Every structure is written in structure tokens, then in C-alpha cells.
Amino acid sequence: MLSNQQISEYAENGYLLIENALSADQLKELTKVTDRLILESAAITESNEKYDLDEGHTPDTPRLTRIKLPHTLDPIYWQIIRSERICNLIKPLLGENIRLHTSKLNTKAPDGGSAVEWHQDWAFYPHTNDDLLAIGVMLEDVTEESGPLMAIPGSHKGPVLDHSRNGVFCGAVDPQDPQFHPQQATTLTGPAGSLSIHHVRSLHGSAPNHSARARKILFYECIAADAWPINGNSSAYSGLSQQTLWEAMQDNLICGEQPLHARLSAVPVRMPLPPPPDATSIFKVQQSGGARSAFSS
Q: What's the CA gap between 284 and 277, in Å, rounded?
């Protein structure tokens, strides 16, 4: 359970770091399953619906940027996010009724694994209110060298910055945007089993991994269940029938119930349109959309 001080820090800064949030058994099982999935990617020669490959990927040396939707690949990932331990951490921030938006496991290969350019998750999937957050579960020790998550304190209270370039959504802010202040960022590092929580509007990014180990962080994007996706955003529910939409929302409940009302808040919204040539992951969005890097030397 979060303390009152942690709740206040999240409200003020837009992020939290909680060390040793997982039990030793949970971490061991997650690591075992994740390592298996990475080894299985050795047989893949191009990115697909399960894996995003990084440059230099070979059968002998698998290099990934991401394992997509891990909660659909092995029950352990779903068990972790629905565990009492995790639910008790996010209920004070999102309420009793919480839905999973999506999951991803950013593996960030050693010795130069890809950066994630600065962005706000809210730019990708606006909803009727902004009680949304992302949990980052560290499966390895995360250090300054391994390309940790960085977040700008208080940015979740500010504007939604422009995430477009050359007339298309590129999933990243322009490093020259006068409202972008990376020098104010906090670095979120910690031992394996720790987790970060960041608000959906928090400006964040991560540099390339310059360590000799993969930087494996499991991300869960969680939503207050009375936040409904705004039509036209690239959400997990786009293009579904009403019946399929309702079933998907039910299936994705982490705790509580799915209300039938949508809570509307006065929040700024930019639509992630027109789409870039490849919108299959944030890495592909930023690459194909021509995002300018804030991490280039």
C-alpha cells in the first residue's frame, strides 16, 4: 500500500519509484519466462506481432527492443498485474475499478540497445479522463548506464506537446520545442524487483543501453475503468464491434467492475493522426515518423 507521502509525491511529480515491490518468487518466475521468450526470438528474422527486433539481431545473439503484449503470451504476466501486491499500489491512484490498456516488455539489448525518444503516453491514446498510468517492473538492476526511464517532474500538469513531424504523428516531441526541458529530468534507477509508476501525461524517455546487460522492463499501462478511449486514437479497442469492445474491456479488468458511464474531465487532447507509415510499436512510430532524437551525440 502506498503511504500518504508517496501519493502526494505522485500527485506533485507525476511519477514514483518503489524498490523491492516484487517478491523474490515473482521476480524469479518472471525472469525465467522472459528469458525463454527472448531465446525463442532467435528463430525470427524480422519483427512480427510478437517481437520487435533490434539492429544486429541474429540467431546466435537475439537482440530485441520489445516483446509485445506479454500478458497474452504467458499467464505469469497477467498474474503479476492482478496480484494483490500490485493492485494495492495503484488503487490509491486510480480507484477501485481498474482496466489494463496494454502491456509490453522493453528488453533494450546490451551495448547500444535502442533509445525511446521523449514523449507523453497521452499523445498515443487519449481518453475521457487522464487517470491512467504506466507501471514499469524492473526485471534486471537498472543503472545510469543501462538506459533508465527518465521523467520530468510536474510535466503531467502541463500541456500535451506536439508529437508530429512532417505532417504525421511521430510519437516523440521535438528536442527544440521551447516547452521541453530535459535538463529538469529525474532518472529512475533501482534493483531488480523495483517498479516505477508514471502518469500518462508525464514527459519521459530513455537513452540507449550502454551496459553489458539487457535492460528488461515490463510495462503495464493501467486505466481507471471509467476512462473510455476517445474515438480515433490508436487504442487497443480501435475498429472493434460494440460486443467485441465490451468483451475486451471485461477481459482486461485488473480489479473491480467496468462501469457504464464515462467520467469526462477537462483535459487537453491531441489526436495521434495522421498516422506514420508504421505504427506497430513506439519504436516503429518514432522511426517511420521521422522523430528527431534528443539522445544523438
A: 9
Give the torsion sign (CA, 43, 47, 52, 54): positive
Chain centroid offset of residue 113 CA: 17
Quote the DSSP letter at residue 7. Answer: H
248 — phi, psi (to 5°)? -65, -40
Q: Which of 292, 294, 290 is nearest to 278 (CA)?
A: 290
pLDDT at 143: 95
What pLDDT score does 234 carry?
Answer: 47
Low-confidence ranges of the chain (pLDDT < 70): 231-240, 297
Dump strand ranges (E) for 120-230.
Answer: 132-138, 149-151, 164-165, 168-169, 186-188, 195-199, 204-206, 217-224
- The answer for residues whose C-beta is within 8 angstroms of residue 267's C-beta and 6 or more apart is 126, 129, 130, 201
The CA distance from 198 to 135, in Å, is 7
* CA 133 – CA 202 distance, rounded (Å): 9
pLDDT at 238: 56
Q: Which of 129, 217, 124 is nearest to 171 (CA)?
A: 124
Please report, rounded to a whole number, the percentage of residues in the chain having pLDDT higher than 70: 96
Give dist(CA 66, CA 217) in Å, integer: 10
Q: What's the CA gap between 14 and 68, in Å, rounded?
A: 25
Task: Provide the residue ranges of all domains of the chain, joining segments of one domain with +.
Answer: 4-288
CATH of domain 4-288: 2.60.120.620
For residue 38, which phi and psi values (nearest 5 degrees)?
-65, -40
In Å, how far are 50, 91, 132, 149 from 139, measured between CA atoms?
A: 19, 23, 23, 14
Cβ atoms of residues 97 and 225 within 8 Å: yes
For 252, the 3-state DSSP assignment is coil
Q: At which residue does the C-alpha cell 544486429 appear?
A: 56
